[in-house]
Amino acid sequence: MKNTDPPPREHKAETAITAKLTPELRKFIENVGMYFETFGIPRIGGRILGLLMIAHEPLSAEHIQSILKVSRGSISTNMRMLVGSGLAEKVSPLGNRTSFFIYPESALERRTEIGIQSGVDFKKLSEQGLAALPPDDIARRRFEETLEWSDVLIEGFQKVLVEWNGRHRSQQKSATLTGVPQRVANNLQQKN
């Protein structure tokens, strides 16, 4: 069973993941939270990510809340951050009002693509700043270096993405137009 497959009908996701949580896995979840906290990201965001990484099935916000013993508001806030960063994906079958979350198989690629886009966006801002300065302003050098740095960053991320995709091309999965892997949609639909 992959982490995108929902639990079998006779098992609740909360029960399956809770039974799996050994002291070592609980420590891993907490360490992921502390790791992210060192970068100014709320610890709960890292804990959610750690939980999603070890889950064999999609988890609802309610399940995550129950397992991690945190508020629903904290789950919601941090899930938006994780989804926006490409480290989590929201999946929901047609006709089901419950949203589930997974650690997507494409998380690493998505993070790299987001890095590329971030570099492109910052480069555009730097170009705007450079264009606004008079030709003899000494601050222009900062912007020129920033533009060069942005190019190096973008090229680096692009090379990483090409290398990674070359190594893992056979493992890439097809997705529906909504971005939900078809097997996730099918399995969640059968659950209901």
Strand order of the largest sheet: 1-3-2
Broad CATH class of the largest domain: Mainly Alpha
The computed structural class is mainly alpha
C-alpha-based Rg, rounded: 20 Å
Question: How far from one another are the termini?
Answer: 19 Å
The major pleated sheet works out as:
3 strands, antiparallel
CATH superfamily annotation of the largest domain: Winged helix-like DNA-binding domain superfamily/Winged helix DNA-binding domain
In sequence order, what are the helices and strands, one letter per element? HHHEHHEEHHH
Mean pLDDT: 83
Shape descriptor reads elongated
Describe the fold and architecture:
There is one protein chain. The chain is mostly helical. It has 2 domains: 13-105 and 181-191, Orthogonal Bundle (Arc Repressor Mutant, subunit A), CATH 1.10.10; 107-170. The chain is 63% helix and 4% strand. The chain is built from 8 helices and 3 strands. It has helices spanning 13-20, 23-37, 43-54, 61-68, 72-84, 107-132, 140-168, 182-191, and strands at residues 59-60, 89-91, 100-102. A 3-stranded antiparallel β-sheet has the order 1-3-2. Helix 1 packs parallel to helix 4 (61-68) and helix 3 (43-54) packs across helix 5 (72-84). The longest helix is centred in the C-terminal third of the chain and has 29 residues, at 140-168. The protein starts with 12 loop residues before the first helix and ends with a helix. The model is unreliable at 4-11 and 173-192 (pLDDT under 50).
